[in-house]
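Per reviewer request, we include the raw input and output of the structure prediction for the construct analysed in the revised manuscript.
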Amino acid sequence: MSAGEVATGIPASGITPRRAYLQLLVTVSVWGGTFTVAKQAVADVDPLALGAGRYVVGLMVLLIFVRAQGGLTRPGRRELVLCGVMALAGIVGFNLLTFAGLELALAGDAALIMPTMPAAVTIPLAVVFFGEHFGRWQVVGLLLLIAGEVLVFREAVFGQELDGERLAGVGLFFGAAALWGV
């Protein structure tokens, strides 16, 4: 029994392993279906309107929680600038490129590319901008990530027609993933 468990063998958090796995399964299912649902949505709604609407609803829910917790502290100028940059890159840019890419390429392309690319972007950026050390295992992990992505994507793409429009959509997915990694 670990230090985090009570005498019953249940983790101190109160969540049983079965419930934790169920929560993980729900999370994976929701994330897995995101690109398929978004592909259907961009067929009917402009990508900019879709992205904006998504975050307006999220903001309203967040404001309810913030108010219930007693309000928000006023951020300083530096925090506002950082939040602005992150919002432009990780929210506006990410959504615009993702939804625009879904108008051109398959939802499966997005589902294959986007979950892994932020790591491929973040690790090199952390080395360049923050002086973090790029250890041997990080190199191995990054190479495995890229090799796996190439293998899976190669099978998905080469069995189907790859025209300029689809390639442009895939390029937008890579751009969106890079913005999310920033």
